[in-house]
Design goal:
This protein is an alpha/beta fold. It contains five helices and six strands; from the N terminus they run αβαβααββββα. It has a single domain, classed as Rossmann fold. The termini are far apart.
Amino acid sequence: MRHMRSHRLISPAAALLVAAFALFLGACAPTATPPAEARVAVMNGPAQSALSGSAEAVQAELEKQPDRGFSLVSAFTMRFLESHNDLFHSRAAGSAARIARSEGADLAVMVGAPVLERTVTLSADEASRRVDVAVALEAQVVDAATDAVVQTLRTRTQQGSRVEANDLPLPEPAEDPTVVALMQTAAPELSFSLLAELPYLIKQLLIGSTGG
């Protein structure tokens, strides 16, 4: 005699109850916490080679990349802090690291102009002058935890010139239109280098800090 195997059908109401219970369990299950995003503080420095506006120009370029892999301390905050700290010579890296730590940043980036040259040539009657300018930007990346400079990046030297009347004093570098134009040309190049290097440095530092 052949026995028929019976199949119990689940009612629609029971199926809905099972699905709701599964969703509830899924909501209660622990989720992986995403790693904290690294934070970077960009400032003008070291002070003896700083060119006002350089850090702002580089940060503006970095901020155009939403998937850069790190966040930035606000430029407004950095302008205040860099003007109230000693960023000269051998004290620059330590001060930059301290500023970064105060803002919860993992790295400090000092942006300076190691090459900033202006050569003035007067016309025969001294009524006009030719101003030849050379500018290169440099970023020194400082580990906020150790005060150590862990990377130095430099742009190509940008060159330009202008001819103008000689009846006014030569402007300060930060107000010199040719200097500013060349700095703004170099800023994207430096930011591109930082976008390539900072994620690698951040990864190395995080691995080192966790002993991996």
